[in-house]
Amino acid sequence: MRTLLLAALFFAFTNVVSAQERKVEFTTIQLSDTVYMLRGAGGNVGISTGEDGLYIIDDQVKPVTEQLLQAVRKVSDQPIRFVINTHYHADHVGGNETIGGAGTVIIAHDNIRKRMTTRQVNKFRNDTTPPYAKDALPVLTFNDRISLHLNGESATAYYVANGHTDGDSIIHFPESNVIHMGDMYFNGLYPYVDLDAGGSMQGMVEAADLALSMADDATRIIPGHGPLAMTEDLKSYRDFLVRAGANVQELIDQGMNLQQVIAARPTSEWDEELGKTWITPAQFVTFIYNSHQGIQEYTPPPEVEAEED
Predict the structure, then answer these.
(1) Residues 157 and 171 sit within 8 Å (Cβ to Cβ)
(2) Is 155 part of any domain?
């Protein structure tokens, strides 16, 4: 019951709440002369603005699109030329239909378009998403990477296979020394690994490794959710992913099933800090267990006494 309640609360904006029913407070952080981070009701948004125009990375949830656009206009009143989607989840592509319908070019990995044009069943959220409207779909897709050369700098979107989903990208602004990681990085909470959409723990680690290979000590990291981070924060996150995975694998190697692994509390070191916002410790352990066992779907974790501690 707790699983379904938390999932429903997190995704409520995508299906129920209208923009008029909730005024969203947007926070804008300038990261360089051209790059900004915008926090609001869904995934964190990246903004690039300058002499060549305006483009954004992700566009939050559908009901707050007009509020999002108002927040973007406070940075620049130029029309949005491009949107880059980091993945297909509704809290990152929710504004696509309105923005794409106004003539903005939507860019995304091939797998994002594939998922947005087909019915998606998600066992973690216990819901089904129908195909998106035509205006919401990416019209320019890529397989490995794509670069934009605007506003006096480059921005390259790099595909990372089977991380948060099977269609995630991270976007690097080398001149501004900024990396937008989408939901390959949850800062301050347990990450959601969408096994139903091809996600895996190994891919999450590989995404962190890729970002760190492009970063220095001064790099600013925009996570998919949570506050702005620095390279040291991402290093700690990467180490946490590896250690949590190793803890679960050690128990698997001892022959434990999922219920026994959860009861052993292999993530107890981080539960207090990361496990109280959305993803519970039992859910996160389930992501790891299923990923390591090659189970490409979410299975609700069994009730165990360890969760009541």
Answers:
(1) yes
(2) yes
What is the side-by-side strand order in the sheet with 140-142? 27-30, 35-39, 45-50, 53-57, 80-84, 105-109, 140-142
| pLDDT number for residue 308 | 42
> Would the pLDDT of 76 be above 80?
yes
Q: Which domain holds residue 214?
A: 2-231
Which helix H or strand E contains 37, and what residues bound it?
strand 35-39
The reply to whether 73 falls in a domain is yes
β-pairing, 140-142 with 145-150?
unpaired
Tally of structural domains, the chain: 1
Taking only the tens place, the pLDDT of each residue in 129-158 is 999 999 999 999 999 999 999 999 999 999
Q: Is the CB of residue 78 less than 8 Å from the CB of residue 54?
A: yes
What element of type H or E holds 237? Answer: helix 231-253
Q: What's the rounded Cα separation, in Å, for the pair 167 and 158?
A: 10
pLDDT at residue 210 tops 50: yes
* pLDDT exceeds cutoff 50 at 14: no
Tell whether 309 is covered by a domain: no
H runs (alpha helix) in the chain = 2-10, 12-15, 65-75, 90-93, 96-101, 110-116, 201-214, 231-253, 258-263, 268-274, 281-293
Region class of 162: left (phi > 0), else alpha (psi between -120 and 50), else beta: left
Copy the structure tokens of residue 224. Answer: 């998919």
Mean per-residue pLDDT for 233-256? 99
Q: Are 180 and 57 in contact (CB under 8 A)?
A: yes
- Can you give the CATH number for the domain in which 141 is found? 3.60.15.10
Biggest distance spanned by C-alpha atoms of the chain: 60
284 within a domain of the structure (yes/no)? no
Judge if pTM exceeds 0.85: yes
Residue 163 structure tokens = 């991380």
